[in-house]
Write a structure and sequence with these properties.
Layout: E1 3-7, H1 13-22, E2 25-28, H2 40-58, E3 62-67, H3 70-83, E4 86-91, H4 94-97, H5 105-114, E5 117-120, H6 123-131, E6 136-138, E7 159-162, H7 172-180, E8 186-190, H8 198-201, E9 208-212, H9 216-225, E10 228-231, H10 241-249, E11 253-256, H11 259-264, E12 269-272, H12 276-288, H13 290-319
Parallel strand pairs: 1-2, 1-3, 3-4, 4-5, 5-6, 7-8, 7-10, 8-9, 10-11, 11-12
Helix pairs in contact: 2-3, 3-5, 7-12
């Protein structure tokens, strides 16, 4: 079965891993500047044309498409209606919860009912698609090989790698203040720090280091070499790729105390409220329980890999239905 994977982004690690496991050819399709409302209609038209051109060249039996944006899934559906084949939708959290895409849930539902499968990331999303009465599977953790990691220089006695994209759902002001109150710990913030607002930059303590946007091998080296990975969010129902990367690398994790994160990261993890005291106490606990957390995060990795193998088999069974038609 020939499979193509379409993503309307410049890069996405989870999609890359999922495509590898499915034996699919992966295509990141991007044109123009994301975030521009005026440019958006032209961008979606151009990306639809580019997507169809790729698919007409490859002629896949099945197309897996990442959502959001919903227009990517719509473009792939229209392609399969015109040229044949089946499609599956890899629906991320934003497709269900973000203000930008909440309006499109009716279209998401209509497309999911026509898809071979809709992939969701957690049990909350599962409850939604189950009501849609469409074929689906739940796939959170996606294992991968990270042997390509490059060493990252760390200076502190205890080092925290903070997974950060400087987005609105990240409680950076709280982390900065917790770091100020923990001067004997060094915090390394990944991501493009040019996006950090000036008023927050002025409040950054000296033990917080901004790495800037790192090549992926160096970023993975940072997560591997740190004593603990911190990945926080103010948004409920959100799974965090940084958390799964930490599990894959065997590095203990500090993450926000949301039910979905407690469910997935049940071992080797310190769950904290997004408060100064909560983060400070979480870092202190990670320091004192380092050996136990490292042992338990490896146990969690083994558990999640076993679950993943079952989830992947279920997805492949749904996709193979295309061969029978």
């Amino acid at each position: 079965m020939k499979t193509s994977f379409i993503v309307w982004l410049g890069y996405h690690r989870r999609s890359e891993l999922l495509a590898e496991h499915l034996g699919a050819s992966l295509h990141f399709v991007r044109w123009g500047r994301s975030g521009s409302v005026i440019q958006a209609p032209f961008r979606y038209v151009v990306q639809t044309w580019k997507t169809w051109r790729i698919l007409r060249q490859e002629r896949p039996d099945v197309v897996v498409v990442q959502n959001p944006p919903i227009f990517c899934a719509l473009a792939v559906y229209l392609y399969t209606r015109w040229y044949g084949g089946g499609f599956a939708i890899d629906s991320h959290t934003g497709a269900f919860t973000s203000r930008k895409w909440r309006w499109s849930r009716w279209l998401h539902r209509a497309l999911s009912r026509r898809a071979l499968a809709t992939i969701v990331h957690n049990t909350g999303q599962e409850q939604i698609v189950k009501r849609w009465e469409c074929p689906y599977c739940v796939m959170g953790f996606t294992p991968g090989d990270y042997s390509f990691a490059e060493p990252f220089p760390l200076d502190g006695q205890f080092n925290v790698a903070v997974v950060c994209a400087f987005m609105s759902d990240e409680p950076l002001n709280v982390v900065f203040e917790a770091a100020r109150q923990t001067p004997d710990v060094d915090f390394y913030f990944s991501g493009d720090s040019s996006r950090l607002p000036a008023h927050l930059l002025a409040r950054k303590p000296d033990n917080c280091h901004l790495t800037g946007y790192l090549p992926y091998a160096q970023y993975i080296g940072l997560l591997r070499d740190a004593d603990v990975v911190m990945d926080l969010t103010d948004a409920n129902h959100t799974l965090l790729m940084g958390g799964f990367e930490a599990v894959s690398l065997g590095t203990p994790l500090i993450t926000s105390d949301w039910p979905v994160l407690r469910d997935y990261f049940s071992l080797g993890t310190v769950h904290v409220p997004n408060t100064v005291q909560g983060i400070r106490e979480g870092v202190d606990r990670a320091r004192h329980e380092q050996a136990d957390l490292k042992r338990d995060i490896v146990r969690l990795r083994e558990q999640l890999i076993a679950e993943w193998e079952q989830e992947l088999a279920a997805l492949e069974a749904l996709l193979r239905k295309q061969e029978a038609t």
